[in-house]
Specification:
By secondary structure, the chain is α/β, with parallel strands linked by helices. It is 31% helix and 14% strand. β5, α3 and β6 form a beta-alpha-beta unit.
Length: 327
């Protein structure tokens, strides 16, 4: 089974020397204490330019619009950066980060430009090679600013490696490890998470081995369930197994809860084919109630196609309405 993806306002700040704390005028963003795995708290950014938000804006008379607006478009969701043109992505990143900073909110961004992404599947693309990818990461990361930001680094990159031989898998792991270093150097307040797949994919030990190769010890941890439907309870259990295998108590997990409210259903990974069996999961939050889990996030944007019957990443109001409980 695999996943399929798609794609400065100024605030007065004071830096508390030695505590590693960033305090904005509104008191929303906090980074405590200093260090690679500092805790983060605050409010997640609601992106006004998602496919769902754009659809609602031009379809306000549609009977589905109010439900999609309240249940989906009004929730914090990730912004995906997928174009191999680093300059364009840096400009887009800068604008996105500035908008979040102006509100004193924490954005979630997805880096998705690794070569041979999705093993040539519905979301194929990315940089032409690993050298180009390193340059892409460097350019885009310079636009991350200095405030807290959550970075979901390359969905499927570690869980989906069926198209790679051993040396290619090692090279990919090294490239991701270098990317973690680049991102952290560009913005030490960034929270960076690597790919662990999900609870119905690779064993926890396999996920841990690949995460280790990809430099997870330099990151803040790993994410799971991106674009999938596994229950939150199953993902927490899986994540704790991965953490046990890693043996690093400072690392944490984040979970994509965008479409897991009804669990995996029949097990089909593609939402296009089974929209009526899926529901929204827990709302995005940094307060999970579980020590090992930093956040529940909506990484896959609800209503966006997986690429089976519609173009991957295209917003499908029928899917969104069904996920939100409409009928």
């Amino acid at each position: 089974m695999k996943n399929v993806k798609r794609q400065l306002g100024r605030r007065t700040r004071s830096l508390l020397a030695g505590a590693g704390t960033v305090v904005l005028a509104l008191g929303v963003l906090t980074l405590l204490p200093s260090g690679a795995n500092a805790a983060i708290s605050g409010s997640l950014y609601v992106d006004p330019d998602t496919g769902g938000a754009r659809w609602v804006a031009v379809n306000s008379g549609d009977r589905r619009a109010n439900l999609i607006k309240s249940k989906i478009a009004g929730q914090p969701q990730a912004r995906w950066f997928t174009n191999a043109n680093a300059g364009q992505m840096a400009t887009a990143m800068s604008s996105h980060i500035a908008a979040a900073n102006a509100q004193g909110k924490i954005p979630t961004v997805v880096y998705y430009a690794l070569p041979n992404r999705d093993c040539g599947g519905a979301s194929a693309g990315g940089a032409k090679d690993l050298n180009a990818y390193a340059s892409w990461v460097s350019t885009v990361s310079k636009a991350l600013g200095t405030n807290p930001v959550i970075v979901i680094l390359e969905p499927d990159s570690l869980a989906l490696q069926t198209c790679l031989n051993a040396s290619e898998a090692t090279a990919r792991g090294n490239a991701l490890s270098a990317a973690v270093t680049t991102i952290k150097s560009a913005n030490p307040a960034a929270k960076v998470y690597l790919d662990a797949g999900h609870s119905g994919w690779n064993p926890a030990g396999t996920a841990a081995q690949r995460l280790t190769q990809a430099g997870v010890s330099k990151s803040d941890g790993f994410y799971s369930n991106v674009s999938n439907f596994r229950t939150t309870a199953a993902e927490i259990s899986f994540g704790q197994q991965v953490l046990s295998s890693l043996g690093n108590s400072s690392l944490k997990q984040v979970i994509d809860t965008s479409r897991n409210g009804a669990g995996p259903g029949g097990g089909d990974w593609c939402d296009d084919r089974l929209p009526s069996t899926r529901r929204l999961g827990s709302a995005p939050t940094l307060s999970t109630g579980t020590e090992t889990v930093d956040a529940f996030l909506w990484v896959k944007l609800p209503g966006e196609a997986d690429g089976c019957q519609n173009q991957a990443g295209s917003f499908q109001p029928a899917n969104a309405y069904s996920l939100a409980g409409g009928s």
